[in-house]
Amino acid sequence: MHDILCGMKGYDLQLVAENGGFDHTDSIGTELAINSLRRGTTFRQLPVRGTRRQDAPRFDRRLRANMRIFAALGQIVRADIRGIFG
């Protein structure tokens, strides 16, 4: 596995149901991927052909997209801490 948070993703709908939805943290799928890994889900990379995007990325440039991922990870960690310490 190289980077499950990068590129086009496809998820089994059962994972979405087990997570209670796709995304509660506005994280571009980070929450679903992390929670699925915690449940022992394995991910596969499949080659996909495409063309270079001509317009602006949907989730902004690299810095802003990465900040969204870090924010989602922070929310996951905070939820874990609340679960441990009540």
Distance between the termini: 34 Å
Count of helix runs:
3
Alpha-carbon Rg, integer: 14 Å
Shape category: globular
Class by alpha and beta content: mainly alpha
Number of strands: 0
Short description:
The chain is 45% helix and 0% strand.
SSE layout:
Layout lengths: L12 H6 L11 H9 L23 H24 L1
What does this structure look like?
This protein is an all-alpha fold. The protein has 3 helices and no strands. It is globular, with a radius of gyration of 14 Å.
Which short descriptors sum up this protein?
single chain, 0% strand, 45% helix, globular, 86 residues
